[in-house]
Amino acid sequence: MPMLEITGLHVVFGGLHAINDLDFAVEKGEIVAVIGPNGAGKTTFFNAISGMVKPTEGQIAFEGRSLLGLDPNKITSRGIARTFQNVRLFANMTVLENVMVSQHCRTRQRILDALLQTRRFRTEEEQVRARGKEVLGFFGTRLTGYRFDQPASVLSYANRRRLEIARAMATSPKLILLDEPVAGMNPVESAELTQLIGKLRDEMGYTIVLIEHDMSVVRDISDRVVVLDHGEAIARGTYAEVSANPQVIEAYLGQSADGS
Amino acid sequence: MTAAGDFPASQDAAPAAAPRRRLLEQDWRKLLRASAILAIAQVFIGLSGMPVSFDRRLLIDPILSLGYLSLLWLPLAVSYWVGREQVLEGMTAYARGGRDVLAGAITGAVGNAGLTLLVVGITHFDIRDPLVNWSPQLLGILEFEESVWLGALIWPAIGAGVGALGGGMHWASSRITRTTVIVLLSVFGTAVLESVITDLSQGFHIEAVSDWLYGPKRGLTYPAAIVVAAAAAAIAGGIAAYRAFLARTASTSGQLGIAASGETSANRVRWRRIPVRRLVGFALSAAAIVVLPLFLGRLTNELLANVGLFILLALGLNIIVGLAGILDLGYVAFFAVGGYSVAVLTSPGSPRFDLEIPWFGALFAAMLLAGLAGLLIGAPVIRMRGDYLAIVTLGFGEIIRVLLLSDWLSGTFNGAQGITNIPGVEVFGLATVRGFEPRSVLYLVLVFCAIAVYVSWRLENSRIGRAWMAIREDESVAEAMGVDTVSAKLMAFVTGAVLGSFSGAILSAKVGSVFPHSFAIIVSIVILVVVIFGGMGSIAGVIAGAAVLIGVLGGPNQPGLLQEFAEYKILIYGALLVWMMLQRSEGLIPSVRRARELHLDEMNQDAWLRAQVAADDAGGGGGGDRSEGEQP
Ligand SMILES: Nc1ncnc2c1ncn2[C@@H]1O[C@H](COP(=O)(O)OP(=O)(O)O)[C@@H](O)[C@H]1O
Ligand SMILES: [Mg+2]
Question: Is the CB of residue B500 less than 8 Å from the CB of residue B506?
Answer without folding.
Answer: no
